[in-house]
Design brief:
- By secondary structure, the chain is mainly alpha-helical.
- The protein has two domains: about 5-200 and about 310-340, 3-Layer(aba) Sandwich (Rossmann fold), CATH 3.40.50; about 220-305, Tyrosyl-Transfer RNA Synthetase (Orthogonal Bundle).
- Strand 4 (about 160), helix 8 and strand 5 form a beta-alpha-beta unit.
- It is globular, with a radius of gyration of 21 Å.
- It is about 50% helix and about 5% strand.
- The structure holds adenosine-5'-tetraphosphate.
- Adenosine-5'-tetraphosphate binds near residues 200 and 210.
Amino acid sequence: MDSSKENKENIVESAPRKKRALSCIQPTGIPTLGNYLGAMRNWVAMQDEMDCAFAVADLHAITVRQEPANLRKQIYEMFALLLSIGLDPEKTLLFVQSQVPAHAQLSWILSCHTQFGELSRMTQFKDKSAKHADNINLGLFAYPSLMAADILLYQPDYVPVGADQKQHVELTRDIAERFNNLYGNVFTVPEPYIMKSGARIRSLQDPTKKMSKSDTNQNAYISLKDDPDTIVRKFKRAVTDSEARVYHGEGKDGINNLIEIYSSITGKTFEQIEQEFEGKGYGDFKIAVAEVVVETLRPIQQKFDELIQDKAYLEKMMAQGAERASKIAQRTLNKALKKTGFVII
Ligand code: AQP
């Protein structure tokens, strides 16, 4: 993976102490290649450089109706996947959000410092309320104040996310600054940390939209659990254009997306890729993209298949993570409660 400094936004030079990073992922299905290239893969690279915490954001998942048994299964799967991609619980704090009650508590305090107008402007709220018009619930609207609590409890410097989450991290910064201005320094004001490569992987069926794990069309995304034949088939069916020459250009959303996936995995520049496939058609290129994706996912899938059989181990790791996370979170929560005027006993 390309982790050169130029490839990162918002990095501060000459850090005086080890920086902290935190990010979360919703257990709303098996993550896609978009989640992996845009966020999760970067988390693995960061764990040696920074103090990192990553959480399964299960409380966020119920902003959209979930079937309880399925949600439970998906929480185990997402936790197992975090371990499978190479996050090491010895170095990195891994936990499940609902197992740390401070998230819901701080969320209420922050909700009282978040404006209706701010929440109304969130693109995700607009998208999801259009998609789930029969269930536009308060949680869907208030999602960013829970996300602000998730982040601010751990006082991180950076929040490594895909480009789609930048707006929520910016709102988190506004809420933190507002709170600090009112009550004194309680929260570190974090910065979004977005890798340029892979930050916005698009749907294979509608490349004007982002690739999303809850897409109803399974051909639109590559799931981290897709087997090699499925991956090849989905790439073969990916929507492109009729020009049949591999280059990154205006109005070529489908092929641009495939080039970005290939570049993000191989580290090759767009120019190198254009040279590599000069004189070849989209068919050859699609197979090449599928092959690098298959090889990237193979070790993750092997590890996942092993871990998902061992519920006792997963629960032990969850309990350890929740205990460590609770200690850090409670410290920040108490500070926020005290500054706001509550009585701590
Ligand atoms: N298409 C994408 N390209 C790059 N990064 C992406 N991320 C999501 N989609 C892409 C990043 O993945 C992290 C975890 O996302 P999430 O599951 O917490 O929520 P999401 O952004 O709403 O992702 P999905 O897949 O679209 O979930 P559903 O379908 O449940 O809403 C985030 O850092 C995100 O930026």
